[in-house]
Design a protein that fits this description.
The chain is α/β, with parallel strands linked by helices. The chain folds into 3 domains: 1-52 and 345-390 and 606-651, no CATH class; 53-103 and 198-331, P-loop containing nucleotide triphosphate hydrolases (Rossmann fold, 3-Layer(aba) Sandwich); 408-601, no CATH class. 63% of the residues lie in helices and 10% in strands. Helix 16 runs antiparallel to helix 17 (457-500). The protein binds guanosine-5'-triphosphate and magnesium ion (MG).
Amino acid sequence: MTLAQHFAAYSEWRSELSSLLDSFGRWLTENELADAQIDRRVAQMLEKLREDRLHVAFVAEFSRGKSELINAVFFADYGHRILPSTAGRTTMCPTELMFDQNKAPSIELLPIETRQSNAGIGEYKRFPEEWTTVPLNTASAEAMQDAFRHVSDVRRVDSATAEKLGFPLVNDETAAFKIGDDGTVEIPRWRHAVINFPHPLLQQGLVILDTPGLNAIGTEPELTLSLLPNAHAVLFILAADTGVTQSDLTVWREHIGAPNGRKKGRIVVLNKIDSLWDELKSAAEIESEIAKQVNDCAQTLDLPAAQIYPVSAQKALVAKINADEELLLRSRLSDLEFALSEDLIPAKQEIVRDNIDNEFKDCCRHTHGLLESRLSGLREQMAELGELRGKNKGVVEYMMGKVRHEKEEFEAGLQRYYAVRSVFAQLTNKLFAHLGLDSLRLLSTSTREAMLHATFSKTLSSAMTQFFNASRNRLANSESEIGEILAMMSAIYKKFSVEHGLKLGTPTAFSLMRYEKEIDRLDQWCRTHVNTTFQLLTHEKNQLTQRFFEEVAVQVRKTFEHANRDAESWLKAIMAPMEIQIREHQIHLQRRLESIKRIHQATDTLEERIEELVYVESKLLSQIKALSEIDENVRDVLQRAVRGGELRKVA
Ligand SMILES: Nc1nc2c(ncn2[C@@H]2O[C@H](COP(=O)(O)OP(=O)(O)OP(=O)(O)O)[C@@H](O)[C@H]2O)c(=O)[nH]1
Ligand SMILES: [Mg+2]
């Protein structure tokens, strides 16, 4: 079972789930159970499934065979080497391969000069006019190969420009960027490339990130702070002909290796094992040579040997193109593909499953509550009317008084609800006073001032530390406001359930823990990359301040933006069910009153009225049944695990 097949099975699962959720949405509308809130939630779930992307990144020193491995794993079906792979430095800029159906197949290239501005790659993605676009003719393999060659484009600039663009010029043998005799330096022409390419796997949401060697990674913080940590799998590639070199180790330590043990989705590949295929040696000798190299790597990287996959990307590509089973077996690519898909897809599926499961459960509970409250109201009304059978006008008048009284009582109860709503608004304001972006903006301003006015590196360093502590405090304070809102809403949910029979259950809980963890991660990164003694001693405070804001603070801001968005949806999600049920209950009481009034005017319509209600009841009951069927179907699909290309039920 190849990764491609496994991934296809996963996509099928996603689309099955989408179509079930889609029909759930339609069913809600047809049955007049939809409201703005639930429509939005169903649309969001569908969007999540549609936009669900799987990011796989390839990282290594130059010439270890990243691009060749991508060709072998994903693109062998084209019968050609799609991504350029040659000796020496080939891929000059980080390259994302993906498919966005709203765009024509193309290569978009961001000029290297954009490094001079403060904006990151993510920011530039919002401005297509900043990119150079090369159309992609997918009908011709040669035209495609030609177009893909742009990722290797270089240009020569003087050394001052090179340094300004972030290319470190050190004068030693291993330096990636050397000053030539004429005083100029060869640097990449592009800062980033996005290849929009309708390959079946990319169409299903796979995003592949090919990176150039170490030096280019170090200068693009967005890569190390956001693109790599957010990738679902990162493949780190070593080559058997070079072994683990010092610069391989640096890439590993700084960008991939997890300090405390194994991180999910991190895979080490020992490529080019064909360089050990010596015709004068027996198969067993070669085998033990490979095993020895694997063990050496394992020791150096401090990993179990079983986590290192020896392969030959080049032979695997040739084998796949020529359908040479024997060579493919020797290339050992299938073991790697198997490990990759076992690591990647179940983990990814779990995240999607959890997300959708929680959200769907909530929507179901909400709809069920609505139907149940309609049903119990209806039954009450039926009982009332049943009692009126054969009664005289006096009794009907008494009943009318009773309902009127109930209505008044409920309206008095509503006062409490209005009071809660105003406290809710106050608490929400308090929450956003801590969590909101205004507060973060103030913090950024004061941190920037403190840094620019710092006279000692100690002050500079503590301003950065303080920034993180203050961000953490803001999250902790927000967390406690959230606790208060939740406690208040739980109490009011309960009150309305007990006193007025609303079917509300308990409000959904919410936590900011993931954002706290993200802040910890960014802090950790800052302490190893920016706020270090070395950086403080070797950089000017202006330079360091700018770096801190361009690389670190911008990510903290993103974290807060996400936290704000989540908090807003949560607030809506806990308030909406109350509002909807209260409205329903009001309408219902009004209907009861009117129906008795009508009977009061003409007692002969009573039987007709009861018959009508019996019909409504049967309709409600069948809606409840239909909902539980939908619920069961969705749950069934959610529970299914995608393994080895077939869909199996999880025990
Ligand atoms: N013998 C052998 N050579 C390989 C193998 N894989 C890649 N190569 C060669 O190694 C060289 C570098 O391969 P690339 O795929 O360009 O390496 P890369 O890691 O993408 O390098 P950069 O793009 O420069 O960062 C090319 O000449 C490939 O043909 C392999 O499995 N065996
Ligand atoms: Mg490459």
